Amino acid sequence: MMELTIEHLSKRYGQNWALRELSLRCEPGMLGLVGPNGAGKTTLMRMIATLLSPTEGTIRWNGQDIRTHGEALRQVLGYLPQDFGIYPEFTGRQFLRYLAAMKGLPTSLVNRRVDEVLSIANLEQVADRKLPTYSGGMKQRIGIAQALLNDPELLIVDEPTAGLDPAERVRFRTLLSSLTSNRIILLSTHIISDVEAVANRLMILQEGRVLTDTTPEALLAKTAGSVWGVTTDQTTALQLQASYQVSTMVNQMHGITLRIVSATRPHEAAVVIDPSLEEAYLLAVGRPAVRV
Amino acid sequence: MNATVLTSTEQQTRITGHQYPLTRVVTWELRRFLASRLFWFQALGFWGFLLLIIWALHASDQTGTVTGSEQLSAYVAGTSAGGLLRTLPTYLIILALLLPFITADGVTRDVNRRTHELLMTTALPTWAYVLGRYLASLIIGLGLALLLFASILGMGGLLHLTDPTYPLPQPDAVLLLWVGMVLSATILVSSVGFAMSTLWPRLSMLIKAVIMVGWLTGALVIPVSFRNTTPPPAWYVNWDPTSGITALGLLPAYQIGLNSSITNEAQLLQFILSVENKMPDLAGWFVPHLLLAGASLVLVLVAALAFKRSRETLS
User: Fold this and answer.
1) Has residue A136 been placed in a domain?
2) Confidence (pLDDT) at A284
3) Is residue A141 in a domain?
């Protein structure tokens, strides 16, 4: 059995509700959590990781409330926070051995396991360098490596691809995909293409509430007919930008090409085009965004 | 990054429980301390400063007499029992100013470094985390206290080698004063600093400042008010954790009353030696000092029990 169940979960900071009445049931596979800043993604992840107590509601791991059985969850939990620190005294290998010891891995297994996760994170060449000499991408990869040390059944990754270059991001997505078969992965990200590439389920949070809980395919299907492409002059482009959600705006030789998210035809020359998941997200969230 | 699926150790890696969590935390925390160049730099600096100050205070008190037309003078050795009662509170000040920076942040350093979330999401039991951090920092603190003990004996021996009239330190007397004053103070400062900072992590810097100011007041300011006036009350002599007042209360036993029978320097040295190397009287103060240290350990237990893994407590 491997099941994460969340019922009527709410979290309040002072007078502000960061999360309201969230219910969710997860089985092995990957759930992509997206939403604007302040939507409650990190709060939700921290509550599942037992770092925060819910104001209301329950989180159950395999039927057990994690408030009273937190240790059972932590034994099978891998967590990569959005922003984490390192011990500057340690090399990458020492850091992983340290966390392996804290996670309770048997001593006889630690070295082999550390070598494995170093290999997975492609850090073997720099494993014996002190952590302060690591680049941002390497630091992120050491974070991913530590999350995998105990071969977690529940892997929570909060903005894991931030700081990675495009090639590393693609490799990381592939790695995450390969891990989904026998565990639950919760992936929080701002980068919609990450979710599109790896998640079989997508949840959009906004202002602490669930806006959509669906599959990427279903969300795309729902958006079909609501994304338009048009190439026009600069003045018209600026007018369209002011009136509609423009997802992309590209300067070209013969004018400016826009991708517009709109339920109605925004311009007489506009034609319906295939939506991207990012555009489906924009339509759901209802926020203007421009990528020039 | 390789897209390798974790399979080879999958079954074995999924853990079923922690074995010896406290030992693991202490061992790794010590490794972390020892891997830090800054730590070695601090320890070496502390040791060098100690040797310098022990050497500077090797003549802790001047005394003299006049016989006929000859003026005789000698000094009390800083590393003798009588001399240590004059100098040890000063050495303790140095130690007490350094200890909060080593011990108080055992847990709060993780919050400041943002390693807290990585640790709190492991299966490490809370009590093992808190007590392990405490024990590791206490071991480091005791190591520094031992360095003081070794420095007193070592510098005393070195001074004896360079000047045969300088008496060799008496290890038993030094050990008793070290246990009663230095060991107890090390445990007390380490425990109070750690426990308070763990309970109120946001006030960690303030707690360190209060400990340091409190210690300076107890060891330097208050004893000045008792010098050459009324003797300090007995309860204060017995229960003073800084040992400043305790030393003042014990010093009368080492008063050197010179008489006219001393006619040459050799007699004077012999007389001073017989007084300064007397074993300190342990009655009254020794047990209270250890009790204070013991009470501070209870405070650490309270901190370990009250500590919450939740980030809300610490942020």
Assistant:
1) yes
2) 87
3) yes
Same domain, A189 and A120: yes
Q: Is residue A291 part of a domain?
A: no
User: Which of A55, A103, A113 has the highest number of chain B CBs within 10 A, making it the mutation to test binding with B?
Assistant: A103
Distances (CA, A) of B300 to A55, A115, B16, B69, B207: 30, 37, 29, 63, 15
Residues A198 and A241 in one domain: no
| Predicted complex: ipTM over 0.95 | no
- The residue range of the domain holding A237 is 221-285
The two beta strands, A29-34 and A201-206, are parallel
Question: If you average pLDDT over residues A118-142, what whole number do you get?
Answer: 92
The answer to whether residue A290 sits within a structural domain is: no
Q: How far is B262 from B280, CA to CA, in rounded Å?
A: 25
CB contacts of A151 in chain B (<8 Å) are 6, 9-10, 13-14
Residue where a domain stops, chosen among A175, A192, A218: A218
Name which of A99, A119, A121 is nearest B118 (Cβ-Cβ).
A99
CB within 8 Å: A75 and B17? yes
> How far apart are the CA of A285 and the nearest CA of chain B, in angstroms?
29
Counting the structural domains of chain A, the total is 2
The residues spanned by each domain of chain B are 29-314
pLDDT digits (tens, 9 = 90+) for B69-128: 667 677 778 888 888 888 999 999 999 999 999 999 889 889 888 899 999 999 999 999
pTM of the entire predicted model? 0.85
For residues A173 and A36, state if they share a domain: yes
Residue written as token pair 């939740």: B310
Query: Quick one: pLDDT band at residue B238, thresholds 50, 70, 90?
Result: very high
Mark whether A203 and A240 lie in a shared domain: no
pLDDT at B139 over 80: yes
What is d(CA A16, CA A280) in angstroms, rounded to the nearest whole number?
A: 28
For the record, the structure tokens of A17 come out as: 């509700």
* Per-residue confidence band for B2, with pLDDT thresholds at 50, 70 and 90: very low
Per-residue pLDDT for B7 more than 60? no
User: Does B260 contact A at CB distance below 8 Å?
Assistant: no
**b/e code B236-250 from CB counts within 10 Å (16+ = b):** bbbbbbbbbbbbbbb
> Is the same domain home to A66 and A109?
yes
Instruction: Kindly report the nearest CA distance between residue B122 and chain A, in angstroms.
Output: 5
What is the arrangement of strands in the sheet containing A29-34, beginning at the earlier edge strand? A77-80, A154-158, A184-188, A29-34, A201-206, A209-214
* Residue pair B188/B292 in contact by the 8 Å Cβ criterion: yes
Higher per-residue pLDDT: B278 or B150? B150
Report whether pLDDT(A113) > 60.
Answer: yes
CB distance B121–A112 less than 8 Å?
A: no
Q: Could A71 and B35 be called an inter-chain contact, meaning their C-beta atoms sit closer than 8 Å? A: no
